Amino acid sequence: MAEIAVTVVIDRLLSLLTEEARLLRGVHSEVEDIKRELSYIQAFLKDADAKAEKGDTISHGLQTWVQELRETSYSIEDLVDEYIQHFANRPRRSGVIFDFLSKVSCLIVKLKPRHEIASQVKDLKLKVGKLHEESSRYGFISSFEQGSGGSSDTINVQWRDPRVKALFIEEAEIVGIESPKSELINWLVEGAAERTVISVVGMGGLGKTTLAKKVYDNKKVVERFGFHAWITVSQSFKMEMVLQDMIKQFYETMKEPIPEGMDAMGVISLSGLLKKYLEDKRYAIVFDDVWGSEFWEFIKSVLPENKRGSRVVITTRNVEVGCAIRESRFHHVHNLQPLPPESSWELFCKKAFQDSCCPPELKKISIDIVKRCAGLPLAIVAIGGALLTKQKNELEWQKFYESLGSQLETNPHLESITKILCLSYNDLPYYLKPCFLYCAVFPEDYSINHAKLIRLWVAEGFVKGKKGMSLEQRAEEYLNELIHRSMVQLSEVDDRGRIRGCKVHDLMREIILKKAEELSFCHVLGDEDSSFNGKFRRGSIQKGTNTIAVETINRNSQIRSLLLFDMDAVPMLLTGISFTNFKLLKVLDFEDAPLNSVPEDLGNLFHLTYLSLRGTKVKMLPKSIGKLQNLQTLDLKHSPVDALPVEITKLKKLRHILAYFYHINPEGGVIIPRGVRIGEGIGSMLDLQKLCHVEANNGRGLIEELGKLRQLRRLGIVNLMEEDGPSMCASISNMKYLESLVIFSKDDGILNLQTISDPPRYLRNLSLQGCLRRLQDWLPELQNLVRVVFVNSRLSYDPMEVLQALPNLLELVLTNAYGGECFCFTELGFQKLQRLFLVNMMGLKTLKIHEGALPVLKHLEIGFCPQMEVPYGIRLLKTLTRIDFFGMPRKFASSMLPQHGQNYHIVEHVPHVFFHEIHADGHKILSLR
């Protein structure tokens, strides 16, 4: 796929022609010509890539042309980056004599490099011009002619479509669909008279078509709907053909003659004919494999809403399509789930052993193979069928398992997996393809940290700006779109419903990893790399990395990214690689590596945008870090670094400084934080989005400078002094976009934060540790708060009256926050609160919970409140699913025992109740039932 490479280069050239125009003396016109030629070629690349993806019908010449264009684009990108670095590193002096000497010395030193670069630019210009000329012989269609669909708009491979098999699967071969099948049949044959639309949503290969076909053919459905039609839509549908197909099926069902001249009708005439025919009929239609919501936007106007109990079923890989049709309570969305392990095993045995039992010697490897399929029926059936043809030999099956990536490409039995999963990839818009390919750098079955992935996409330059949005917010949109397209799966969601981790299905990862390596986009380095001699832009160091893999890295001096997942490789890597040889590196990820120090030559990585030393043993950053003019992310979380060099303030493009460490006191769960010290000048780092946590010990000057950081979304302050409170309030008032604010007072002293004149309206997370005495007057203005944490606040009055009025609050944590005896939860209080944690309040005796309070509370935690009585109002909290009691008196716990506890009836309705006993030698958990 050349489009990714060409798009990146055009963006780089645009930047060079505008922001760096002063560097282009002598070659400006050549660079402009290259940009113009590439822009022209770009218009045809959608069609070129689509033809290249068909592989089996494409000429060798076209494949060579696409590959040469990609390599040329990479060469241009390399030259641009070398050019910028070469001239950006020129010395800058002050004074007339120094200026003169500087110019003379630069002229002598730079003449040769400038001449060499100009010569390379001209050579590349000729090469691009030749590629442009050669493009005409392949008959490409311009993207302006194609319209705005996905990258496969011009491909019609319906006659080879592996999805057709799903329409003819015998009932006996199907496993694990009885429950969704019953639900769908019920929605079709029962319910309201209004036209009802049912969406079946899930990733490719989950069995959506199979499920829908079994429902469509069900006897109850056939008997209820005399007028029915099955329409396969696919990516390349034409509305005229869809309408003609529907009309033909309806007429043929009723054995009526098809209207004359229908084949010559346009969309408007066909729509009118169909709508009139159905206006007094009860009908059922399945639209299988819908890719975009625009299809439903049109087709719904053709299908009459005649209140005769009609039903429409849509299958789609895209969640957004399913949600788009959900226009009323009569519309349903069924999210089809992967098969559970038991059903997966049953289906595998049906295919691999023809309903026989699995031989004992193959049990372990078979379980591993089934696990790799991750509940995807298409994969289980295809792989089981492939293994049926092999000898029942453990060694043979083990070889198959270990070579599954290459098997997907070469084994004809697995062709259907690759084709169906590739349909989703090919349909991605071009701005999402590099983002999705990037997921291949992470190991198999790896949960990718959501925030890290977004920062990496931004650092790699994959994210395009959008007015009114930060790059990170735009990247969040990209990730959500990949999730909605069922390309990326959620692996971890926090208690507030926020994405924390995501992953790619293992088989999809194998496919995109192969594609990424073919495109030189990235390469995974491990013990199997002894024979790899190709080029790659990004290296992922994974299990079993050896000296040969290190040599492979050294041969690729143009590498852009290095991500480390094999901790044992670190010593070998750092002794075998010199940063001075990799001047174009943009990403260095050493998270959790056993790394004690960072080389001084780190500062030579002029283009570095992302540096992670999270979880390492690095204690100090080199001063040369001040030379990393393009650095956007500096991640030092959970490392011993406690101070940043003064040179850090030279990095004007920094967007994220993540540098903190938490110790948690097991008694009472109090968090003891540690931030980093930073000197004056931080106020000049105007692009900062995240700054957490900063030691406030440097005094009022630092606090006042924070007020200049108006783009901050997240701020953490440690050791704030009482006298610096007013300055802190003034600075916070300037942070209009702040979403998260965490402040710790020094030695749990007073937090003087009453005077925030303009509280950040977008604030969602507020965490304050220190003495407040009373709640801030501005707190009720924060209508978007979803999480509030108060620790050691020592409030003298019940704060619930204020807090329960916050309309969007989901989580409330109070630790040693109140010295009184009673919390009162009044009627209609905390209407959205789902989690409530009350810890370490020595005087608290009573929780008064009124009817109507806390209507959606799911999790309640009470700990280290020695005088607390069992709250009688818990019995009113019908949505509670879990209660945790920490360090409570034994009498308190025994009163809730099922056998003789007088308070058991209060918690009887809660499914999970746990008692945590905290001792000096450990932590013991007891379940109520």
Describe the structure.
The chain has 929 residues and is of the alpha/beta class. 36% of the residues lie in helices and 16% in strands. The protein is built from 29 helices and 30 strands. It has an 18-stranded mixed β-sheet, sandwiched between helices. Strands 2-3-4-1-5 form a five-stranded parallel β-sheet. Strand 29 (912-919) and strand 30 form a beta hairpin. Helix 3 (60-88) runs antiparallel to helix 4 (96-135) and helix 13 packs parallel to helix 15. The radius of gyration is 32 Å and the shape is globular. 40% of the residues are buried. Mean pLDDT is 85; it is low at 92-112 and 143-160.
Write the layout of secondary structure elements.
Blueprint: H1 2-18, H2 28-54, H3 60-88, H4 96-135, H5 143-146, H6 178-189, E1 196-201, H7 208-216, H8 219-224, E2 227-232, H9 239-253, H10 267-278, E3 283-290, H11 293-299, E4 311-316, H12 319-324, E5 331-335, H13 341-352, H14 363-373, H15 377-388, H16 394-402, H17 404-410, H18 415-426, H19 433-438, E6 448-449, H20 450-460, H21 471-484, E7 489-493, E8 499-503, H22 506-518, E9 523-525, E10 538-541, H23 547-555, E11 561-564, H24 570-576, E12 587-589, E13 610-612, E14 633-635, E15 656-658, E16 661-665, E17 670-674, E18 690-695, H25 700-706, E19 714-720, H26 725-733, E20 740-745, E21 765-769, E22 787-791, H27 800-803, E23 811-815, E24 822-825, E25 835-839, E26 846-849, E27 859-863, E28 882-886, H28 890-894, H29 904-907, E29 912-919, E30 922-927
Parallel strand pairs: 1-4, 1-5, 2-3, 3-4, 9-10, 10-11, 11-12, 12-13, 13-14, 14-15, 15-18, 18-19, 19-20, 20-21, 21-22, 22-23, 23-25, 24-26, 25-27, 27-28, 28-29
Antiparallel strand pairs: 6-8, 7-8, 16-17, 29-30
Helix pairs in contact: 1-2, 1-3, 2-4, 3-4, 6-7, 9-10, 13-15, 14-16, 17-22, 18-22, 20-21, 25-26
